[in-house]
Recover the amino acids of this structure.
């Protein structure tokens, strides 16, 4: 993080962790400040001129959503009805 970054206060070099009953540090919850949304948006907007046209398009809102299913679910088998014996 650059010392001149407007977001530096939200990314401290030293911070507390909360193990919350866990044993390993990598399981802990990192306690850093909540980011100010308006500062984040302002900082992002100030750098937008550096993006390529493709990156700007990627960051724009989508007009559609395409979902591809990689899994096929098995079809439910119909239970055969047993014939009653007379």
């Amino acid at each position: 993080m650059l010392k001149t970054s407007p977001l530096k206060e939200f990314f401290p070099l030293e911070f507390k962790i909360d193990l919350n009953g866990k044993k390993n540090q990598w399981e802990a919850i990192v306690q850093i400040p909540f980011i100010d949304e308006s500062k984040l948006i302002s900082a992002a907007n100030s750098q937008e001129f550096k993006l390529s046209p493709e990156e700007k398009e990627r960051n724009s809102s989508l007009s559609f959503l395409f979902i591809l299913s990689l899994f096929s679910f098995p079809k439910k088998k119909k239970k055969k009805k047993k014939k009653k014996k007379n």
Summary: The mean pLDDT is 84. The chain has two helices and two strands. Residues 37-47 form the longest helix (11 residues). The first strand starts at residue 16 and ends at 18.
